[in-house]
Amino acid sequence: MKSFSLGMIGFGAIGRSLVDRLNKDTDGLDLTITALVRHAPESQGLSNLTFVTDVEALLRSKPELVVECASQEALAQHGPAVLTAGVDLVAASIGALSQPGFEQRLESAARKGAARLFLPAGAVAGIDGLTAAKLAGLTQVTYVSRKPPNAWKGTHAETLCDLDSLKDETLLFEGTAREGSRLFPKNANVAATVALAGLGLDDTRIKVIADPKVDRNCHEVEAEGAFGTLALRLANFPSPDNPKTSFLTILSLERTVRNRWSRIVI
């Protein structure tokens, strides 16, 4: 039986769901998982899961791939070390790359370690088409994040309006993906993903909307370029374990991990 050593940065709702899904079907692999956390929790009842509290211990487990599913801060703290050590990294907290200089820092670490940084599509679709269209030239990319008011609680939106009293859709922000990611860091991942796949953080326009008439997290992407035009809309169900995370985000991470050992990759 072939083995596969998976490392993780973070073990919150996303991490737990990802591990549960991978363990349901390991594709015949002997899968071992080492998760880097701040404080090692009590046993999760999984014989193939080990917790560590420092990145050096994570790297000593010799992971073939590390998945970050913790936070922008965790990616900034541990991502460069993983890449410098020559280990490929999957980053869920893509919004961190909107911070000035951080994308270049990660790229430098990846070059030094001859590793690769993977940016999964996460909660949005069409990223493969957008990155392909970019090769021939894009003229415009826009992204709209539309969520129910309670999804914006605990964010900058609470300083802009009374989320509990909204009757109609309310525009919370309109501007560049970089500025939107700065103002709404907990909701920045999709905006940053669309921007990095297309025109970049400073040339991608985004709108952030609180809409009491929707009950799902909705993402709208439009693009124009030499390829033609693209328009898509997703209405994602939330994760059963975390209402602020789209279920599709977990599935995207799972697909990225499985692609690592699959013989046919889509």
UniProtKB/TrEMBL annotation:
Could you cite one Gene Ontology molecular function of this protein?
NADP binding
Pathway field = Cofactor biosynthesis; NAD(+) biosynthesis; iminoaspartate from L-aspartate (dehydrogenase route): step 1/1
Task: Give the SUPFAM superfamilies listed for this entry.
Answer: Glyceraldehyde-3-phosphate dehydrogenase-like, C-terminal domain (SSF55347), NAD(P)-binding Rossmann-fold domains (SSF51735)
Q: Which GO terms describe its biological process?
A: NAD+ biosynthetic process
Query: Where in this chain does the record put each Aspartate/homoserine dehydrogenase NAD-binding domain?
Result: 10-120
EC numbers listed for it are 1.4.1.21
Residues of the active site = 219
- What is the enzyme's main class? oxidoreductase
Can you give the residue ranges of the Aspartate dehydrogenase domain? 167-253
**Pfam families on file:** Asp_DH_C, NAD_binding_3
| Entry keyword Acetylation | no
Q: Which reaction does it catalyse?
A: L-aspartate + NAD(+) + H2O = oxaloacetate + NH4(+) + NADH + H(+); L-aspartate + NADP(+) + H2O = oxaloacetate + NH4(+) + NADPH + H(+)
Q: Which InterPro entries match?
A: Asp/hSer_DH_NAD-bd (IPR005106), Asp_DH (IPR002811), Asp_DH_prok (IPR020626), L-Asp_DH (IPR011182), NAD(P)-bd_dom_sf (IPR036291)
Positions bound to NAD(+):
123, 189
More details: The iminoaspartate product is unstable in aqueous solution and can decompose to oxaloacetate and ammonia.
HAMAP family tied to this protein = NadX
* Protein task: Specifically catalyzes the NAD or NADP-dependent dehydrogenation of L-aspartate to iminoaspartate.
What is the protein name stated in its UniProt record? L-aspartate dehydrogenase
Native source species = Limibacillus halophilus
Taxonomic classification: Bacteria, Pseudomonadati, Pseudomonadota, Alphaproteobacteria, Rhodospirillales
What is the gene called? nadX
